[in-house]
């Protein structure tokens, strides 16, 4: 009988030990999974942050690069001669200024304050509008125009008032540089053009 009691006690103790070992093993496994999961989440978060940071840096760098290119082109435009810039401005209001080498035409112009007065002329007759344009740092703005359609009749000359980018005008010049460089000889600064314009406008 005493032997049986001792034997049952050993069995009970063995059962308890086995259960405790299983509980410890389960807890360790759970802790390990939690640690791996936490590490994975932290790694993924770090990876996403790095990707977002790289994307933001790339975007900012590209914006800065484009801004620098734009500023260089504006500087390049501003360094063109006055005659070439006037010539280019004339093309924004009068298609005749687009003629290769300005063959058969002259461009009369002058500045008054912040206004440019420009007229493309064939040398005879009527139908030669005078246009007024204005500038800012980036654009040229056609403002208004008048034209004598006959000896006795003056009309408003149609314009497209949309601003024209100086960068676009620079590209136009570079694409047809020889033509503009040759045609510039047909430009003439005539200070009296604002008076011509005002006289024509008074007859509207």
UniProtKB/TrEMBL annotation:
It comes from the Bacteria. Residues 47-60 have a biased composition (Polar residues). Residues 24-61 are annotated as: Disordered. Residues 29-46 have a biased composition (Low complexity). This is Lipoprotein.
């Amino acid at each position: 009988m005493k032997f049986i009691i001792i034997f049952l006690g050993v069995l009970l103790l063995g059962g308890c030990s086995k259960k405790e070992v299983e509980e410890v093993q389960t807890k360790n496994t759970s802790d390990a999974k939690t640690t791996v999961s936490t590490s994975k989440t932290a790694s993924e978060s770090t990876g996403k942050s790095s990707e977002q940071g790289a994307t933001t840096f790339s975007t900012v760098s590209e914006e800065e690069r484009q801004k620098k290119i734009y500023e260089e082109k504006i500087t390049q435009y501003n360094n063109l001669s006055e005659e070439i810039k006037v010539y280019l401005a004339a093309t924004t209001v009068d298609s005749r200024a687009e003629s290769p080498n300005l063959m058969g035409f002259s461009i009369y112009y002058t500045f008054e304050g912040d206004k440019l007065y420009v007229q493309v002329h064939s040398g005879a007759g009527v139908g030669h509008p005078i246009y007024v344009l204005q500038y800012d740092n980036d654009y040229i703005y056609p403002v208004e125009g008048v034209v004598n359609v006959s000896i006795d009749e003056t009309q408003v000359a149609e314009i497209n008032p949309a601003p024209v980018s100086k960068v676009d005008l620079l590209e136009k010049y570079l694409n047809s540089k020889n033509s503009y460089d040759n045609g510039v000889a047909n430009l003439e600064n005539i200070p009296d053009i604002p008076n011509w314009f005002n006289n024509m406008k008074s007859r509207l």
